[in-house]
Amino acid sequence: MTSNLKYWYLHEHKLFKNLSYAEIDALCILKRFKKSKKNELLDLPYSEKERIYFLKKGAIKLLKINDEGEEVLIDILQSGDLFGDLNLEKSDEKDEYFQTVSEEAIICTFDRENLENLMHKKPDFALNYIKFIGFNFKKIQNSYKNILFKDAKTRLLLLLHMIMEKENVQGEHFTLPNYLTQKDIAQLICTTRQTIISLFKELEKDGLIQYTQKEIVIHDIPKLKKFIENVK
To answer: Whole-model pTM?
Structure first.
């Protein structure tokens, strides 16, 4: 992958759009691109300088092993997401790991020290970064609120709506390559797999959604959006 193409990848993201080629290069991320294939476990180093990652392409799972030794899905990350220690503080969390669930994923690494230096030199970039982190924090807060105060059906539709927003879906129909098992979805919205099975049957009967192992088809996006608007 050429440096020019890598620069284009990053420059398309709203967080980097006001940075020059030289400034992006100074972050050392042009030299640290990683490609991974479906189902590959990602070996992302927990070092002092490589603490923040940017998912340019694809989708990955954030997984954790609980006290019972079971694999638990924490989150699904999509193109444009940043992950790692976003608050620039060192973490000792080593029981979390990532797995590629799309056909391919492209990830780049931020050098923390260089990122901090760039933020000192460019206050507008620092402000954009703070806004970006604030948006992600708000998303986490909303997720907890949904778990506490919304029923399982609403939480499921909110999850699908969030995925569609990240995919920048346009039109009235959408087919999402399915990288979420029923167990994954149940863990993400804090319910049981049996509840998810029942909900998908109900939504298929209503003509709204069709779930298969290969894809999730949203037949009526306006109807789904109208439902979301009424519960927010």
So the answer is: 0.66
